[in-house]
């Protein structure tokens, strides 16, 4: 028989969340973490800066004004002008239809037919309508001239083809209507559904100019006299239509689409950019930048930033609960989440306070120095004394993200904080005693300097004149990180009951009272514990576990044997075997009780 291959099914998001909740014993304390993320996200969007200078165009600035954050400034006037140009560039839409010529021809035929059949103004509707559009005297004169055979032949044989040709090419009634913008005229032929763009809108004739052209042509016709030419001119000026009609709806629609597609004109305002120097005359563009900067600080809270920061914080915090394989990680205790929340809020508040202090000093150099001096590396190193690599790496990333937001900085500062924090955790986790931690300030300072070089290259708001102040800030950051490790780690041990690396180092010392008692009272067990501790330490290092914690646990794993030293054969050294005088059940009870007594 062939075995069926087990097909792995994708785990849904809901089932994954349920699995995580089942594997974690955090209880209600998970909401403390969520509340802390919401608090620091709100804090990152709060405007607590100093009062901003603003000057109007034409005024002499009495102070330097720099941009304290990256900002996109819209030039509304330039945007309106750009939209106006786009509107002017749109062609007028005209509809071309030969229906106008067909109606004109039909009416002309009706008038000539009525004249030839002896109709009068009083009896024929076509003549009556023509007379109503003029007056009776003029109408009678026109009718008399049009009754001549040579005049009718001229109209139908020579004049009508010229009119048809012109109407087919396009004719407007008023030349002022056809004068569009620089976009010309778009002629849509309704008869064959074609379109043609004419940039020479001035070349499109109107009815008056065309009638003038026809009048010139009629002067060279020998079969027409002065009265006949006037009669034909009067007739055409009355019944000649325009074949081009302005489509206002289509024109307006094109204009609206063109103006909507116009991108606003923005000025890129970068953090640290000098907007106006003291003593300079303010231009309109500089006034616009200062107004936009002032408006960005006018709102007490930037809610979009708060929402985005909270969403990113929730996503990053999944690293506390998930393993690198994507499965739920080891269980977190309630005090773990409380500790994470306290550290997050404390250091974010400190970063915000330093940012506000720099703004009150009204000095961008001070702000740049304070953000470098902030001991984010010490915060990450402090967490590494309690948690495993996955969790202190997640904590370092979240701290770097939120602290960069507090300083209203961008990606370079966040990378500086994160890489500095990972360097600090690497140094702390490899320290064997407190002296090693003290001397780690030297490689930490050198590493922060190398990271700062990348930060300096990527930053546009740090000038070469600030380099000495920046180097001092790096040194301050290293010493503050060292102070944080020594000052707060005892608080963690006492308040939360954690065994930090410092505490584990103290327990590993042979001078510890419990270790000395084991050494003297149960020397055989002590030797056994040393062998096990060395084996466990080597195994932990091989698999990447916490070798210090494993070694200390192995040293004290048989501490419960202190209560019955003579009952264990490794501590008798040739003395009588006490369990020989006891029942087997009692002997087993004594041997098994050392684990419970060791915990106590």
What does this structure look like?
With 600 residues, this protein is mostly helical. It contains 25 helices and 8 strands. It has helices at 13-23, 30-44, 76-88, 99-116, 125-133, 136-146, 149-169, 207-219, 226-239, 248-260, 284-298, 303-316, 334-360, 364-373, 376-384, 389-406, 411-429, 434-439, 441-458, 467-495, 501-508, 513-521, 523-543, 547-555, 584-599, and strands at 65-66, 71-74, 92-96, 185-189, 194-198, 244-246, 266-269, 274-276. A 4-stranded mixed β-sheet has the order 5-4-3-6. The radius of gyration is 47 Å and the shape is elongated. It starts with 12 loop residues before the first helix and ends with a helix.
Can you describe this structure in just a few lines?
The chain is mainly alpha-helical and 600 residues long. It has 25 helices and eight strands.
Layout of strands and helices, then pairs:
Blueprint: H1 13-23, H2 30-44, E1 65-66, E2 71-74, H3 76-88, E3 92-96, H4 99-116, H5 125-133, H6 136-146, H7 149-169, E4 185-189, E5 194-198, H8 207-219, H9 226-239, E6 244-246, H10 248-260, E7 266-269, E8 274-276, H11 284-298, H12 303-316, H13 334-360, H14 364-373, H15 376-384, H16 389-406, H17 411-429, H18 434-439, H19 441-458, H20 467-495, H21 501-508, H22 513-521, H23 523-543, H24 547-555, H25 584-599
Parallel strand pairs: 3-4
Antiparallel strand pairs: 1-8, 2-7, 3-6, 4-5
Helix pairs in contact: 2-12, 2-13, 2-16, 3-10, 4-7, 5-6, 6-9, 8-9, 13-14, 13-16, 14-20, 15-16, 15-17, 15-20, 16-17, 17-19, 19-20, 21-24, 22-23, 23-24
